[in-house]
Amino acid sequence: MVDRIRQLMDYKGFTSTQLADDIEVPRAIVSHILSGRNKPSLDVMLKIISSYREIAVNWLLLGEGKMLKGLASESKPDKAAAAAEEVQPKASAETPKQSPPPEKVQEPFPPVRAPLADGKAIEQVMIFYTDKTFTSYMPGV
I need a surface site. Which of 1, 20, 37, 130 has the fewest CB within 10 A? Predict the structure, then answer.
């Protein structure tokens, strides 16, 4: 697991200090993990997982699969590609098999014809599930 944390740091271009600051843990904790003195706690792993949503949980915890979710290679994507990856809904082939879709799925929302009070209209509604998957609804599509 320590090797994967190091790979994550290389991917992000972080030092141990930068990683600790970014996931909001004391710097000594990351230093002790990297030196082998301590094993990563559940709290530290959860902070890494919640801070870096593009990192595959199975890869980080178990060493299975690829480091990045939904990308063909493990090369570092540019910021625009990473942002687009986070916004796009997952294709059904990429959805984990152990996470079946909700039993009752409503039809997509009806198109929003009238603008809201401030002149804005709804473009997209996203629902995030506890298993880290999400569904995206686009009115009128």
Answer: 130
Mapped onto helix, strand or coil, the DSSP state of residue 71 is coil
**Backbone angles phi and psi of 68, in degrees to 5:** -100, 140
Please state the pTM of the whole predicted model. Answer: 0.47
Domain ranges of the chain: 2-82, 90-141
Residue 100 has a pLDDT of 58
> Is the domain 2-82 a CATH 3.40.190.10 member?
no
* Separation of alpha carbons 138 and 98, rounded Å: 26
DSSP helix/strand/coil, 31 = helix
Task: Read off the pLDDT of residues 50-109 as tens digits, 9 standing for 90 and up.
Answer: 888 888 888 888 888 888 887 544 444 454 455 545 555 445 455 455 655 555 555 555
- Name the amino acid, one letter, at 81: A
Distance between CA atoms of residues 113 and 105, nearest Å = 23
Answer yes or no: are the C-beta atoms of 53 and 86 closer than 8 Å.
yes
45, 33 Cβ separation under 8 angstroms: no
